[in-house]
Amino acid sequence: MSTRQKFECHVISNTHWDREWLKPFQVYRMRFVDYCDKLLDILENDPDYKHYHLDSQSITLEDYLEIRPENAKRVKKLVKSGKLLAGPWYDLPDMNMVDGECLVRNLLRGHKLCKEYGAVMKVGYTPTSAGQIAQLPQIYRGFGIDSAFFYRGINRETAPTEYIWRAPDGSEVIGIRPPRFGRGNFWVHSILPVVHGVYFDKLETCEYKFEGGGQPFRLDGENETSYMLLSPKRYYNEHDIAERFQMLLDDIMPDMTTTHIPAFDGHDHNSPHLETPRIIADINRMFPDIHAVHSSLPQYIDAVRESLKGRKNIKTVEGEMRHTNHSAPGSAQLYPGSLTTRIYLKQENRKTENLLLRQAEPAAVMAASVGLSYPEPYFDLAWRLLLTNQSHDCIMGCSVDKVHEDMMYRFSEAQCIAGELFRRSIAEVTGKIDTQQYPRDAAVLVCFNFLSSPRNAVVKIAVDLPTDAEGDTLRVRDNNGRDVPVQMISANALKCSLESEGFMLGMPVRRYEAYVHVKELPATGYRTLSVASASVALSPQDSLGKSDNILENAYLRVEFNTDGTFDITDKATGATSSGLNYFEDRGEVGNAWVPKQPEHDRVVISRGGKATIRLVENGSLRATFETTVKMRLPTDASNDSRRRSRRTKTVAIVSRISLTKNGRAVDVETIIDNTVKDHKLRAMFPTGIGKAESSFAATPFHVVERPIKTPDGKGWIEPPWPIYPNSGFVDVSDGTHGVAIVNQGLLEYQVIDDSERTVALTLLKGIWQRGNGGGKPWPDIGYQCLGEHRVRYAVYPHKGNWQNGNVYQQLNEQCSPVRVAQCAGGYAGSLPPEQSFLEVTPDIIQVSAVKIAENDDKSVVLRLFNPGSQAVDTAITWKDRLKQVKMLDMEENAIGDLQPDGNCVTLAIAPHKIVTLCLEQVL
After folding, report:
1. In the chain, how many H helices and how many E strands?
2. Strand extents, DSSP E, 610-736
3. With contact defined as beta carbons under 8 Å apart, do 563 and 607 qualify?
4. For residues 913 and 863, what is the distance between their CA atoms, to the nearest angstrom?
5. Could you tell me the strand order of the sheet in which 545-547 lies?
6. Are the C-beta atoms of residues 851 and 860 closer than 8 Å to each other?
7. Pairing relation of β-strands 7-13 and 215-217?
8. What is the rounded distance in angstroms from the CA atom of residue 32 to the CA atom of residue 18?
9. Is it the case that residue 915 has pLDDT exceeding 50?
10. pLDDT of 123 higher than 90
């Protein structure tokens, strides 16, 4: 080897610990406890073994100390000394599959836990995630982290080893692009050949040779193919060190811009290597121009930062990182297929996020402002359950069935906790509302709006009246005495139960179900309604169902076609999009991470076929058509995965398409009873906006623009993928008018480069899981997603682009429905009949969190972000006088003050900026 200057090689000992993946959590935890027992002994007794990294997560500390609580002091001493490094994350999420606020909470929890044990590793190391979100540099900066070290989504054509990564708001961090073999380059080039006699000259799968020694052990069981090696043979092949380490240098040095070489001494589930210090010493003896040290990520980043000081030619990259691998064998793939693997998990995740972030937490803040203690321990538990499920191998859906069964239980538990916290909070607020203006025997409904702006909404209510109530309809009035429009659904006898001080009473009632049109619902607040039975309905209004194939309100005309598709005309622009909501089904023979179509595919589409169409609900406030499409789909793929089966089954797809009186969007619920395998089903929306060159999609704290045209990719190792993630909507616009597809937990979309600019939204995918190299399918049937699936989305035509077309407002309304509580009239209370607790204007400013401060249960933390391209003068109004308002970083440290004016505070929020405020002493 010949070099012109002295290089420093930072050997960084680490592991990548998937808490649950190929084995369930409890199995991997047992291994981790054994591993940590060994690790603590090494760190305490080997002075040459300087540092070890717990994969930038801290949840593993909880996992270990739950079993070994007697070792807490040992762990704290090692963490505090910097020998054992944990955090900054709680666990390792996939960035594109979770709400942006969940990323902040993950880092908050990780920091809190690490501080309990002595120190937080302030390096942005994320050795997971199928692509990196554009706002990650800003999030990291919000926690005092100035680096980002990742490998999925970056390639050598985009950046050298060291670069600057800039977020949309201008926040910058030092980016590190790992070398070949990523988090395990030293492990591959030095540990495997020197210690284990295993050589990765090429990327073929290494196989065990029986003459290699040790005892392969397997406990007999059904289909058990997993062995462990008892008494593995240990080597120290000193003669391999020079050649293999030179391979590491050859991999990375052409792309380096500093003299600091990152060398990662770890891989999936590996134990610490006792031989690492010895190999380092031999490298220093064999390579006079290399100074190898047993280093840490903070030390490496410090050295790179120092080397970059004063440089003006540092490569800067901007925005999200979803680049595929062009020309570097052994570099990480993007893994775009994970967006749709076990899509039901993504839906449950979004449901849980919405319940916690957009209902339970703001409701608990409301209740705390009127005297109820904030239930922090319960929220802490709910968040732990949710964040655990957002770990990459969990939320990606790429683990064994047992792991995802456990996930569904955790989702259920988190929803149960959040649901009960919400109920208790709403009960506290409702119990303090003054209802004296209503008769004692009147039923009072309290309609809660958790959006930060006022709204008008058609709300489904269920109100219980005494069994002797007369009439089959309702008369509803708001607290100002105005009649509220009603559309009846049903009235039936029902026996409820009444809980009172530990005992239950029977409560026979007559339950009326109806839709009501509630106007001027206060921002983050409520409005009361009085309800009485009536014999005669108010003067009927025109129904929204105009014929056997038309829905129409003041804003939209929806016409159904014989194939079950529909056309939407936006009356404001006159634009029509035709043939919406047809279905496309194609073969899928990839794995959980990488999509692949059969070589000889059979694509089946419903467009042009025959559907059953019927009007199932019709009134002045809401009307619904139901369409049933029957598709003959291949039952599965051939054994060699080259084609789809000639055998077919009929799969029925039922869609319920609804329009409300004030609706600017068409709501769709689609039900699929999936009985076939190895396929991907998409809903297709020809927008008709042929001039559009880009799509715009919601992502965490950002709306990202992506080109519709896909690069050629000829000769690339990994092809460019035309499928992208979204966090709730994708929009196509020509600047004059646009069409947005708004959804809940349907993460994958494509805008097809055709004349109609068709948006394809993936509803379902079924696969046999295979390893990255292909091979025999795993036995886990859950990957096929058989059975019934319900998905929700909406089609929203609008003026202009996503910003002036208020697309975010449509998403917010879907994420946070109006919730209704029933109480009685005639009670004195301290709260008025209608009340806003918090309002944020204008609508372009999005609320990410309304919660109690981490370290002060008397203050409210409000997190906002501006997804737009212009600075926005923003006003925040609280229900009471504000004593003090502080600017916080995301770690909730004070960084500035704002001067409130009574109960209002104003500030300018820059484009793409995330802002955290503390409304102090308002409770």
Report:
1. 15, 48
2. 611-617, 622-634, 648-660, 666-674, 679-686, 694-699, 702-707, 724-725, 729-733
3. yes
4. 11
5. 545-547, 550-552, 556-560, 566-570, 576-580
6. yes
7. unpaired
8. 10
9. yes
10. yes
Establish whether the linkage from the previous residue to 842 is cis, with ω within 30° of 0.
yes
Q: The whole model's pTM is what? A: 0.96
Burial of 776 (0-12, 13-18, 19+ CB in 10 A): exposed
User: Is-contact 397 404, C-beta < 8 A?
Assistant: yes
Task: Identify residue 22 by its one-letter amino acid code.
Answer: L
* Helix, strand or coil, per DSSP, at residue 860: strand
Residue whose pair of structure tokens reads 């120092």 in the numeric block: 306
Q: How far is CA 504 from the centre of its chain?
A: 41
Helical (H) or strand (E) element with 77? helix 72-81
Buried residues in 614-653 as b, exposed as e (16+ CB within 10 A): ebebebbbbbbbbbebbbebbebbbeebebbbeeeeebeb
Residue 33 phi/psi, 5-degree rounding, is -65, -45
Taking residues 326-336, what's their average pLDDT?
88
Compute the CA torsion angle 138, 141, 142, 145 (nearest 10 deg).
140
- What is the spatial distance between Cα 42 and Cα 272, in angstroms, rounded to a whole number? 8
Burial class of residue 542, CB neighbours in 10 A (0-12, 13-18, 19+): exposed
> Do 750 and 586 contact (CB within 8 A), yes or no?
no
Q: What angle do CA 135, 101, 144 make, to 5 degrees?
A: 55
Is the pLDDT assigned to residue 520 strictly greater than 50? yes
Per-residue model confidence as pLDDT tens digits over 56-76: 999 999 999 999 999 999 999
Looking at residue 429, its amino acid is: V
From the list 819, 825, 835, the residue with the least C-alpha distance to 531 is: 825
Separation of alpha carbons 78 and 85, rounded Å: 8
Distance from the Cα of residue 166 to its chain's centroid: 22
Other CB atoms within a 10 A radius of the CB of residue 441 amount to: 11
Q: What is the DSSP secondary-structure string of 332-343?
A: PP--GGGGTTTH
CA angle 329, 332, 335 (to 5 degrees): 125
Q: Measured at the alpha carbon of residue 877, what is the angle toward residues 876 and 883, in degrees to the nearest 5?
A: 95
Joined together, the tokens standing for residue 81 give 């000394």
Concatenated DSSP letters for 38-51? HHHHHHHH-TT---
Q: How far apart are CA 565 and CA 607, in angstroms?
A: 7
> 281 vs 46, 50, 265, 288, CA distance in Å?
14, 13, 15, 11
Take residue 649 and report the two structure tokens written for it: 């089954």
Residue 541 CB neighbours (<10 A): 13
| Token pair of 16 as six digits | 């990548």
Give the H/E segment covering residue 343: helix 343-355
Distances (CA, A) of 568 to 440, 559, 575, 762: 47, 7, 8, 21
Task: Report the candidate in 280, 282, 424 with the shortest Cα–Cα distance to residue 359.
Answer: 424
pLDDT per position as a tens digit, 424-442? 999 999 999 999 999 888 8
Contact call for residues 343 and 765 (beta carbons, < 8 A): yes
Cβ atoms of 129 and 93 within 8 Å: the answer is: yes
Residue range 522-528: mean pLDDT, rounded: 98
How far CA 344 is from CA of 493, 764, 766, in Å, comes to 36, 8, 11
Secondary structure class of 368 (helix, strand, coil): helix
Please identify which residue in the block is written with the tokens 């039901």. 344
Q: How far apart are CA 720 and CA 182, in angstroms?
A: 21
Label each residue of 407-460 as H, E or C: HHHHHHHHHHHHHHHHHHHHHHHHHCECCCCCCCCCEEEEEEECCCCCEEEEEE
Task: Confirm if 631 and 624 have CB atoms less than 8 A apart.
Answer: no
